[in-house]
């Protein structure tokens, strides 16, 4: 007799329990947020709240949206917001989506054509993977995370194996994130663009950049890393989300290198856009208010304060972790070398690498600090960590308290490890 579905599903969950990788929805019950992606603390900003409530009170349309964009959800408010976003991010076109996941999945499922190839950073977001699975592209290949030589080798091999690439008849889409959400490191965008343009001089290499974790925190007026590097005219498309640093929800795709025909193509072929109810009027208002804070410089002031907090955090915890065995807790090597650190671009995402992420996170949560353990399959095996996200709203007292709590756990684990070694030596 075949096993019941419930038994099969329970067995799958039990397997994850045994590997300590089962995901759960947990209500936060701690006081200091060092976990969320609310980097500028705009979701709790009283000025933004008052600004939003004022807009909400005077808005003609508030609830719902009326249907999908192709039916009754294409309101003047949606169009005005897209035009504002297009102008602010200096793109040729903009198209709203209900989430960054939906936007990425839409793009990669329908834009690459038969014969085209997708090359992606091995740490690219799951939404891109979902899009690639539904894509008609010839194949999808990964290159080593942030490794320019790996990208060069793959593109060079593809050009030799697929003559139509060299002839410009087929295309290569290169998918990267400007700031990666688990490691907190930055893509070498300029080097990537140089390689793509050098190996594919006919212009059939298209770099697509996910700026989900960079929007609001970097670049002039928070326009992201692509803008800070001045490479807007070299990037094919850019994903911008509103649910992280901007304290709202939803996303949009900014089109740069081609005419607005890509926007029209997505309207006709992106199934999540076609068959999903449009962004609510309330969300449109919320995004507009956050955009006001980008335009008027408020977000830039918060970002500047955030970078000071990040620098202080690293300068305080680094010397303490230098004397800590890496088998207990360590910062990534790029953060441990103070002299190699680029202080003009610090990430609010700081991984505390540890083989015991759940015990460390539980200890910190018990003391009032909200952090999350990150384990396989979210990160590769052997790279488990507690993910720390700093915010503009965090105080120096909170930072010092968190570091003290972390080091207290580290010292306790160090003593336990030394005790085990002493017992082993006697035996």
From TrEMBL:
<comment type="similarity">
    <text>Belongs to the class-II pyridoxal-phosphate-dependent aminotransferase family. BioF subfamily.</text>
</comment>
<feature type="domain" description="Aminotransferase class I/classII large">
    <location>
        <begin position="31"/>
        <end position="404"/>
    </location>
</feature>
<keyword id="KW-0663">Pyridoxal phosphate</keyword>
<dbReference type="InterPro" id="IPR015424">
    <property type="entry name" value="PyrdxlP-dep_Trfase"/>
</dbReference>
<protein>
    <recommendedName>
        <fullName>Aminotransferase class I/classII large domain-containing protein</fullName>
    </recommendedName>
</protein>
<dbReference type="GO" id="GO:0030170">
    <property type="term" value="F:pyridoxal phosphate binding"/>
</dbReference>
<dbReference type="InterPro" id="IPR050087">
    <property type="entry name" value="AON_synthase_class-II"/>
</dbReference>
<dbReference type="InterPro" id="IPR015422">
    <property type="entry name" value="PyrdxlP-dep_Trfase_small"/>
</dbReference>
<dbReference type="Pfam" id="PF00155">
    <property type="entry name" value="Aminotran_1_2"/>
</dbReference>
<dbReference type="GO" id="GO:0016740">
    <property type="term" value="F:transferase activity"/>
</dbReference>
<dbReference type="InterPro" id="IPR004839">
    <property type="entry name" value="Aminotransferase_I/II_large"/>
</dbReference>
<dbReference type="InterPro" id="IPR015421">
    <property type="entry name" value="PyrdxlP-dep_Trfase_major"/>
</dbReference>
<keyword id="KW-0808">Transferase</keyword>
<dbReference type="GO" id="GO:0009102">
    <property type="term" value="P:biotin biosynthetic process"/>
</dbReference>
């Amino acid at each position: 007799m075949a096993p019941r579905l419930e038994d099969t599903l329970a067995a799958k969950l039990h397997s994850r329990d045994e590997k300590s990788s089962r995901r759960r929805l947990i209500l936060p019950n701690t006081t200091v947020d060092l976990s969320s992606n609310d980097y500028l603390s705009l979701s709790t900003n009283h000025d933004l709240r008052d600004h939003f409530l004022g807009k909400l009170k005077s808005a003609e349309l508030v609830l719902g949206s009326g249907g999908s964009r192709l039916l009754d959800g294409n309101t003047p408010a949606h169009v005005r917001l897209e035009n504002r976003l297009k102008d602010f991010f200096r793109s040729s076109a903009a198209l709203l989506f209900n989430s960054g996941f939906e936007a990425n999945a839409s793009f990669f499922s329908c834009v690459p054509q038969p014969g085209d190839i997708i090359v992606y950073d091995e740490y690219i977001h799951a939404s891109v993977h979902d899009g690639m699975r539904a894509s008609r592209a010839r194949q999808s290949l990964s290159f080593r995370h942030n490794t320019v030589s790996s990208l060069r080798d793959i593109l060079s091999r593809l050009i030799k194996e697929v003559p139509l690439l060299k002839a410009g008849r087929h295309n290569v889409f290169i998918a990267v994130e400007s700031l990666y959400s688990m490691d907190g490191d930055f893509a070498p965008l300029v080097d990537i663009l140089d390689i793509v343009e050098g190996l594919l001089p006919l212009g059939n290499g298209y770099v697509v950049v996910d700026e989900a974790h960079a929007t609001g925190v970097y670049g002039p007026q928070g326009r992201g890393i692509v803008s800070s590097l001045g490479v807007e005219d070299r990037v094919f498309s850019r994903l911008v989300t509103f649910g992280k640093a901007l304290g709202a929800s939803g996303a949009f795709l900014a089109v740069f290198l081609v005419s607005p025909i890509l926007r029209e193509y997505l309207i006709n072929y992106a199934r999540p856009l076609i068959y999903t109810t449009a962004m609510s009027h309330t969300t449109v208002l919320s995004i507009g208010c956050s955009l006001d804070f980008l335009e008027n410089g408020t977000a830039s002031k918060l970002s500047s304060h955030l970078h000071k907090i990040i620098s202080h955090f690293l300068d305080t915890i680094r010397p303490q972790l230098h004397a800590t065995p890496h088998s207990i807790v360590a910062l990534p090597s790029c953060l441990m070398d103070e002299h190699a650190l680029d202080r003009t671009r610090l990430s609010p995402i700081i991984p505390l690498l540890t083989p015991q992420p759940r015990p460390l996170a539980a200890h910190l949560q018990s003391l009032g600090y909200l952090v999350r353990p990150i384990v396989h399959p979210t990160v590769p095996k052997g790279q488990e960590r507690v993910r720390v996200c700093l915010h503009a709203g965090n105080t120096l007292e909170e930072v010092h308290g968190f570091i003290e709590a972390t080091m207290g756990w580290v010292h306790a684990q160090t003593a336990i490890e030394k005790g085990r070694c002493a017992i082993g030596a006697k035996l």
